[in-house]
């Protein structure tokens, strides 16, 4: 799920140049169960609603992991053209098995900062609980790449960890927000502006297991 580059040595990431969907290859079989336990499906539902997918829309999710969000997307709008992109081949294999050949949905190996698509080809780019895994330089590159592949007026829809720690946050979630990469995610508004997006904070609220959840909608200017 986390997308890295050659600038981040294998000594940091093990034998991969990316962060596996579950954080470690051995944990991948438990990834979907963990996601359900922490409440990710309901968060995905809200992001799909926010995205307002329409017939004929071309949609790509960056860092799709095992495909949970894009499977929801194609079920919500069967007449869209949806791609799930991720650098983790094991996660993609699981995603393809779960999708069971859903028409209009396909998966591809790719990095968020280097998408194999021409300029302006998508109506929506989706990102769900992925950006906080990335170092700031890769995060910035991924946002710039999202802008590039969106058509003018197209939207980047983001669900991630961010916002402020409050008394409503649990001990576990406060500890998560002390993580360096998560803390760096608080700079998302600035990074979106630097990439060239017009952006809106749609929602910001405490989450019992993930600290604070934010939803952003970012538009490529016409």
Report on the structure:
- Helices cover about 35% and strands about 25% of the residues.
- It starts with a strand and ends with a strand.
- It has about 220 residues and is α/β, with parallel strands linked by helices.
- It has a 7-stranded mixed beta sheet with strand order 5-4-3-6-7-9-8, sandwiched between helices. A two-stranded antiparallel ribbon has the order 1-2.
- Helix 3 packs across helix 4 and helix 6 crosses helix 9.
- Residues about 1-15 have low confidence and may be disordered.
- The longest helix is centred in the middle third of the chain and has 14 residues, at about 135-150.
- It is globular, with a radius of gyration of 16 Å.
- It is built from 9 helices and 9 strands.
Write the layout of secondary structure elements.
Elements: E1 2-3, H1 10-13, E2 18-19, H2 31-38, H3 40-51, E3 58-62, H4 68-76, E4 81-86, H5 89-99, E5 105-109, E6 122-128, H6 136-149, E7 150-161, H7 171-177, H8 180-184, H9 188-195, E8 198-207, E9 211-219
Parallel strand pairs: 3-4, 3-6, 4-5, 6-7
Antiparallel strand pairs: 1-2, 7-9, 8-9
Helix pairs in contact: 3-4, 6-9
Strand residue percentage: 25-35%
Calculate the terminal CA-CA distance, rounded to whole Å: 30 Å
Order of helices and strands: EHEHHEHEHEEHEHHHEE
Helicity, as a percent range: 25-40%
Return residue spans where pLDDT drops below 50 for at least 5 consecutive residues. 2-14
Number of helices: 9
Number of strands: 9
Q: How would you characterize the largest beta sheet?
A: 7 strands, mixed
Strand order of the largest sheet: 5-4-3-6-7-9-8
> Overall mean pLDDT score?
85
User: Mind telling me the C-alpha Rg?
Assistant: 16 Å
The SS-based structural class is: alpha/beta
Q: What is the general shape?
A: globular
């Amino acid at each position: 799920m986390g997308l890295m580059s050659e600038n981040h040595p294998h000594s940091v990431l093990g034998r991969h140049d990316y962060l596996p969907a579950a954080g470690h290859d051995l944990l991948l079989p438990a990834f979907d169960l963990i996601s359900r336990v922490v409440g990710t499906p309901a968060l995905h539902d809200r992001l799909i609603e926010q995205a307002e997918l329409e017939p004929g829309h071309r949609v790509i999710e960056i860092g799709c992991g095992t495909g949970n969000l894009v499977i929801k997307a194609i079920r919500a709008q069967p007449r869209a053209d949806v791609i799930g992109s991720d650098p983790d081949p094991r996660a993609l294999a699981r995603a393809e098995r779960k999708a069971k050949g859903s028409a209009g949905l396909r998966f591809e190996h790719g990095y968020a900062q280097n998408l194999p698509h021409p300029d302006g080809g998508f109506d929506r780019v989706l990102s769900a609980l992925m950006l906080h895994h990335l170092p700031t330089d890769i995060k910035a590159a991924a946002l710039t790449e999202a802008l590039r592949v969106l058509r003018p007026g197209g939207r980047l829809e983001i669900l991630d960890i961010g916002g402020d720690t409050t008394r409503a946050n649990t001990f576990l979630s406060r500890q998560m927000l002390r993580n360096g990469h998560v803390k760096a995610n608080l700079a998302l508004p600035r990074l979106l502006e630097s990439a060239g997006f017009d952006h809106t904070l749609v929602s910001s609220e405490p989450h019992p297991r993930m600290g604070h959840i934010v939803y952003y909608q970012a538009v490529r200017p016409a």
